[in-house]
Design a protein that fits this description.
alpha+beta, Rhopdopsin 7-helix transmembrane proteins, Alpha-Beta Plaits, two-stranded antiparallel ribbon, 13 helices, 8 strands, 10% strand, membrane
Length: 408
């Protein structure tokens, strides 16, 4: 083995170990991000395995062939498992154990078969190719490729898989096992490609970790921690954007104020845990009735606010009543026995061409108080902000939606 090959292998081994150390530190600093520790162990095992290659001929083949190759395959297996965990999927013990358990006996058998280096190299390439494809699939499926770091990581793993597919084809097509040994031009290309892949993959992993942390910070800044709806600040920001869009020529949105009926007495009778469950269930029930473009936010206490982009008054009343009926039909377990929750809702539309959100919220709030005064568990609508013509009797009927049963 010439000096250049030894240097390249040493660079490959050291880069893997450096990536492992970097990711191990990141794992300790960012415990909330799953999968980083498995990535660190994967690069560490790969670096150890590659570092054993230059010792061939000086120490036992058991160490430089079987142990080295098994370490490398186990490392790729850990990278795959890390991608599963990073994508939010479960990692079972067999995910960690299966790659080395497959590799070790097969490599041992191939070594005993007249030191079949080409066969070993083809098997290693095939197994690494499978693990790379699995890891890439986890990235694409679990992370959705939404952010730069994850797109880069998926691209790097995919490109590495393509290289190993080409390597496998070259080994199978070769007349001799020359391409299978860690020497020569083919081996140099393999280790240089691996070196570049390790460096950029580790960088992409760090960037992906930062993206996950930033997404979590954004979620905490914009979401209510109990109900996972938007918080008040985020609602005002999103509503302001929607009103600005509508003022430029779109159809005005509708706004609804939603208040759970008798919530204080519910808390007193059934306990605060039951009250929290009702709030969470209401948020989930309301969200199930909405479009992806609609914005539901917790306005304070048991009061919520809803923005319905591009929605006329009659449609907004229908959506609000659908939410009301869905909550009314849902039973809950409380400390004092079964309980039912209801909601009163006030609906208003934004005046065409305006960005005055506060006026619309006040109109919806007045409609909400009319719903409360009229017996609760109902939907009331504010008059249209700019009535150009007297409303028809059908429109008047649409502005009030009453429950089929008695008020709570």
């Amino acid at each position: 083995m010439d000096l250049d090959s030894k240097t390249i292998i040493a660079m490959m081994s050291l880069s893997s170990l450096a990536a492992a150390a970097t990711l191990a530190l990141a794992s300790r600093m960012h415990l909330a991000v799953r999968g980083i520790g498995l990535w660190a162990w994967g690069f560490a095992l790969g670096g150890i395995g590659v570092g054993l290659y230059p010792l061939r001929g000086a120490v036992s083949p058991l160490l430089t062939v079987l142990v080295a190759s098994t370490c490398i395959i186990a490392g790729y297996g850990l990278l795959w498992a890390g991608m599963r965990r990073f994508a939010g999927r479960r990692v079972a013990p067999w995910h960690l154990a299966l790659p080395p358990l497959i590799a070790a006996p097969v490599l041992g058998t191939l070594y005993l078969a007249d030191h079949a280096a080409a066969g070993r190299s083809a098997f290693i390439s095939a197994l690494i190719l499978v693990l790379l494809v699995l890891a890439t699939a986890e990235l694409v499926r679990g992370c959705g490729g939404r952010a730069l770091g994850r797109r880069l990581l998926a691209g790097l793993f995919g490109a590495h898989a393509v290289f190993y597919a080409a390597r496998l084809i070259a080994i199978l097509a070769a007349d001799s096992g020359a391409v299978a040994e860690p020497v020569g031009a083919f081996a140099t290309i393999t280790f240089v490609e691996a070196f570049v892949w390790v460096v950029f993959s580790a960088l992409a992993m760090v960037v992906s970790t930062s993206e996950v942390l930033q997404e979590e910070l954004n979620r905490q800044a914009t979401r209510d921690p109990l109900t996972e709806t938007y918080n008040r600040r985020a609602f005002y920001d999103l509503a302001g954007r929607e009103l600005a869009r509508a003022a430029r020529g779109g159809r005005p949105p509708a706004v609804a104020m939603l208040d759970l009926d008798h919530f204080k007495s519910l808390n007193d009778r059934h306990g605060h845990d039951a009250g929290d469950r009702v709030l969470q269930a209401f948020a989930a029930t309301a969200a199930a009735c909405l479009r992806p473009s609609d914005v539901l936010a917790r306005y304070g206490g048991e009061e919520f606010v809803l923005l319905l982009p591009d929605t006329p008054l009659a449609d907004a009343v229908a959506v609000a009543d659908r939410i009301r009926r869905a909550l009314e039909a849902q039973p809950f377990d409380g400390a004092g026995g079964p309980l039912h929750a209801t909601v009163s809702i006030g609906v208003a539309t934004v005046a065409a061409g305006t960005t005055d959100l506060e006026a619309t919220l006040k109109a919806a709030d007045r409609a909400l108080y009319r719903a409360k005064a009229a017996g609760r568990n109902r939907v009331e609508a504010a008059p249209p902000p700019l009535p150009d013509a007297p409303p028809s009797s059908a429109a008047l009927d649409a502005t009030t939606a009453r429950p089929a049963g008695t008020a709570a």
